[in-house]
Design a protein that fits this description.
Elements: H1 2-8, H2 10-26, H3 34-49, H4 54-78, H5 83-86, H6 91-94, E1 99-101, E2 110-115, E3 118-123, E4 133-140, E5 143-148
Parallel strand pairs: 3-5
Antiparallel strand pairs: 1-4, 2-3, 4-5
Keywords: Hydrolase, Membrane, Protease, Transmembrane, Transmembrane helix
Protein name: Membrane protease activity regulator
InterPro entries: Membrane_assoc_protease (IPR052165), NA-bd_OB-fold (IPR012340), NfeD-like_C (IPR002810)
């Protein structure tokens, strides 16, 4: 009885399968079922409009799944993430190039700077003094590597 109903209403079968695959995708399969779900919905539309048999519908479903997955893969490779998007949740990487003032003299190369509402540990290869202006050049874990910002004459600028 159920088989005859499904055979008579193939568009509803593909619509239901597509819906189930998309629901399963929302549960967290990271894109694996998205393209199969969309392919099933496309086959549902074609089966509703055109009188095509089950074998052709199955082939269409398989082809549309593979083609859509390949096109998605190509699109992802061509898409370039912006620098901001790459560092969206990495606060320390957003600090590259930021200028700040040292809070204390460096001891064994280490000191601190205040950035926004926090204090960051910094490291410099050269001895620096409190009040020296520095620029963040690299990040190592939670330590910012800085260099002194110098004036045109080559002297380190200081806030007096």
């Amino acid at each position: 009885m159920m088989i005859e109903l499904i055979s008579a209403q193939s568009a509803l079968f593909w619509l239901g399968l597509g819906g189930l695959l998309l629901i399963a995708e929302m549960l967290g399969t990271a894109g694996y079922l998205l393209w199969s779900g969309i392919a099933a919905l496309c086959v549902s539309l074609l089966a509703w409009i055109l009188p095509i048999g089950w074998p052709i519908q199955g082939i269409l479903f398989a082809l549309l799944t593979v083609i859509s997955a390949i096109l998605w893969r190509i699109w992802l490779k061509q898409r370039k993430l912006s620098k901001e998007a790459e560092n969206l949740n990495q606060k320390s990487h957003q600090l590259m190039g930021v200028k700040a003032v040292l809070l204390s003299d460096t001891e064994s190369g280490f000191s601190r700077v205040k950035l926004a509402d926090g204090s960051w540990r910094v490291y410099s290869d050269t001895p620096l003094h409190a009040g020296d202006k520095v620029e963040v050049v690299t990040i190592d874990g939670i330590t910012l590597h800085v260099i002194a910002i110098t004036s045109a004459g080559g002297n380190t600028q200081k806030d007096d």
